[in-house]
Amino acid sequence: MSTPEARKTVVMVVDDAVDCIRMINDALESAGMTVLIALEGSQALTISQNITPDIVLMDAIMPNMDGFETCRRLKQNPDFANTPIIFMTGLSDTEHVVMGLKCGGVDYITKPINTTELMARMQVHLTNARMAHSARAALDTAGQNLFAVDRHGAILWSTPQVHQRLTGGGSNNLELLTNNLATWLSHNPENGHSLTLDFLPELHTVEFLTLVDEREYLLRLQEVQKPSEATGALRTRFSLTGRESDVLLWIANGKTNREIGQILEMSPRTVNKHLEQVFRKLGVENRTSAAAAAIKCLART
């Protein structure tokens, strides 16, 4: 049985020096890679709208838009979140090294380029990127649907399925997502607390799991079932009344008693009465624990 042909590594080289591009292009093509050429930052951004390379080689100093700004703009595109960017320049002072790393670069190599060294560094970063992608794909297979953001709500990484769901609505949805997450995280949500995303093509919630290394907010994305299906699942699992399951569903979606009262057309006091019964039947003491139990129940259905 024949095995599928391995996909070629795609490399985007961004440099205004034609001689340097020619040398790098020859070395990469000899190694069996596909090379995309951009002579300036704006060309790289144009290419990035249609193609996501496996790795980018970026000249730091270019006219009009330098490599640092080009890198920052590329990294604003979620498709490039996991794409390694290696800077190439004749500058080797600490200031420019730090600038390259701060704007999203993973490595730095000085000109004139030693192609043997360049290929070795590229291989390390390509291997790391592919291992990370495989691990995140495995999380999807396990039904985890995880992603991480910084305190400003910008996506640091995501599993493939999460990436597809979050980017399916275009740049406007991504901006809304970033703003909503930044506001929510500024209030320091507790583990298990959820935020409803009602601007995506399908209704989703984001569950806060933990803060990693004081900088990565680990989140889980979950599609919200249709209310009738979701409330039915909660009613059956926890022996709730119809109204109790309605209240629990909206608690799981991060709504306050006042908001639930408006949605279900009842007073906040009535909502609280139902919630007391929900706590008793679920054997929990607060709304965070109730929400966590409901989310787990709905994730299994």
From TrEMBL:
Residues 10-126 form the Response regulatory domain. One of its GO terms (molecular function) is DNA binding. It comes from the Bacteria. SMART domains: HTH_LUXR (SM00421), REC (SM00448). The keyword Cytoplasm does not apply. GO terms for biological process: phosphorelay signal transduction system; regulation of DNA-templated transcription. SUPFAM superfamilies: C-terminal effector domain of the bipartite response regulators (SSF46894), CheY-like (SSF52172). Residues 233-298 form the HTH luxR-type domain. PANTHER family: TWO-COMPONENT RESPONSE REGULATOR. This is Response regulator receiver domain protein (CheY-like). It comes from Marinobacter algicola DG893. The lineage of its organism: Bacteria, Pseudomonadati, Pseudomonadota, Gammaproteobacteria, Pseudomonadales.
